[in-house]
Amino acid sequence: MGLNLLKNMGFIKLWIQVDLLVLVGFIQESYNLHLEHAHMIQQCKDKINGLRRVFLISHCYREANKVADRLT
């Protein structure tokens, strides 16, 4: 949903921070996908590539993610 929102709002530069280091590895293709997660991760990667924007994904610790957790 967040990627769709970014697309609709027309953002050009994206910096996505997630508190799940494994997800960062999956997106950057430095980790092998587990079959149970492959479809979901591929959907995210396709959306990111479809945005045609400057893109950065990085890991943040769970404590830094409190605002996003509160919003959801």
Description of the molecule:
It is a single chain. With 72 residues, the protein is α+β, with helices and mostly antiparallel strands. The chain is built from 4 helices and 2 strands, in the order αβααβα. The protein has one domain (2-71). 53% of the residues lie in helices and 17% in strands. It has a two-stranded parallel sheet with strand order 1-2. The mean pLDDT is 76.
Alpha carbon gyration radius = 13 Å
Q: What percent of residues adopt helix (DSSP H or I)?
A: 40-55%
Number of strands: 2
Residue-averaged pLDDT, rounded? 76
Terminal-residue CA separation: 11 Å
Number of domains: 1
Order of strands in the sheet with the most strands?
A: 1-2
Helix count from the secondary structure assignment: 4
Order of helices and strands: HEHHEH
Q: Could you tell me the strand content as a percent range?
A: 15-25%
> What is the general shape?
globular
Residue windows where pLDDT falls under 50 for at least 5 positions: none
Q: Which structural class do you get from the secondary structure elements? A: alpha+beta
Largest sheet: 2 strands, parallel
Can you summarize this structure?
This protein is of the alpha+beta class.
Topology at a glance:
Elements: H1 2-9, E1 13-18, H2 21-27, H3 35-51, E2 54-59, H4 66-71
Parallel strand pairs: 1-2
Notable traits:
72 residues; alpha+beta; 53% helix
